[in-house]
Amino acid sequence: MVRALSEAQPRPGAIDPAGSTIKLKAEVSADHLPPALDQEALAQFRATVGEDTPELLRELIGIYLEDTPKRLAQLQAGLAQADVKEVERLAHSLKATGATFGALRLADLCQQLELMARTGKLAGAKQLLSQVHAEYQRVCQVLADWS
């Protein structure tokens, strides 16, 4: 399982590299949101896991759906305590797992949080975390059909 997750990297350019300045991306209206999952990235993950092992794919998705709310709660606690190291670590982890499953918008939002924490500038992070929660709910709706 760990091997499958580590091999399933998002395609190049799926997530912007860290920049020298952090700009919060404007909230996108629900009418203009991209799909919750990038089908190409999800297909790549499925191919890595193995098309002939749908039960493994369902298990990995189940683990993701079970583990992510715990990490989001820890991230919220880290923000409440202004623990930039914890926020950076958790945001990085959520970014990576989201990208693995094709949740590229979720990964992008988490990357923004990660960069904010890395620079020690958490102004606006709570608003961004609200966007992360909303996007995760969209991802759950799609992935629930797979698990």
| Low-pLDDT ranges | 1-30
CATH architecture: Up-down Bundle
| Straight-line distance between termini | 15 Å
Give Rg in angstroms. Answer: 15 Å
Would you tell me the overall average pLDDT?
Answer: 82
Q: In the CATH scheme, what's the topology name?
A: Four Helix Bundle (Hemerythrin (Met), subunit A)
How many distinct beta strands? 0
Classify the helix fraction into a percent range. Answer: 55-70%
Order of helices and strands: HHHHHH
| Assigned CATH class | Mainly Alpha
Structural class: mainly alpha
Count of separate DSSP helical elements: 6
Assigned CATH superfamily: HPT domain
Quaternary state reads: single chain
Summarize this structure as a short list of keywords or feature phrases:
147 residues; mainly alpha; Four Helix Bundle (Hemerythrin (Met), subunit A); 6 helices; disordered N terminus
Q: How would you sum up this structure, described in words?
A:
With 147 residues, this protein is mainly α. It has one domain (35-44, 53-147): Four Helix Bundle (Hemerythrin (Met), subunit A) (Up-down Bundle). The protein contains six helices and no strands. It has helices spanning 2-7, 39-49, 54-80, 84-100, 104-119, 125-143. The protein is elongated, with a radius of gyration of 15 Å. Mean pLDDT is 82; it is low at 1-30.
What's a quick, concise take on this entry?
This protein is mainly alpha-helical and 147 residues long. It has six helices and no strands. Helix content is 65%, strand content 0%.
